[in-house]
Amino acid sequence: MEDLSFHHPVRERAGGIRQCAIVGVVASGNLEVLVERVLPDAECVIEIKTAAMGFGEVWCAVIGDFVERYSPGGLKFSINDGGARPDTVSLRLAQAVRLIAGSDR
């Protein structure tokens, strides 16, 4: 297993009122994302556990693009990766932001 951690300053707080959300499932070629509203509004942390060793630069690029697009301030993401492709990672992160921005019903 490889553990990666990314800390980013962001432009603004992520929308919504939900405190946490989870999307995806760890299975062949996929990943699970837990997102929690636990950080100051100007920070974002993404922690990754992956069995796919040596892809730190790819993760860095995907995470950097995600943070720039969504400005997920105040959110901590915990990712359990099962070998997902970069486009799947981007999709799951976008789903997590959308879900946590929804109402807490």
UniProtKB/TrEMBL annotation:
Organism: Bradyrhizobium japonicum
Compartments reported by the entry: Cytoplasm
GO annotations of cellular component type: cytoplasm
Modification after translation, per record: Covalently binds the prosthetic group of malonate decarboxylase.
Protein name: Malonate decarboxylase acyl carrier protein
Phosphoprotein as UniProt keyword: yes
General function of this protein: Subunit of malonate decarboxylase, it is an acyl carrier protein to which acetyl and malonyl thioester residues are bound via a 2'-(5''-phosphoribosyl)-3'-dephospho-CoA prosthetic group and turn over during the catalytic mechanism.
A GO molecular-function annotation: acyl carrier activity
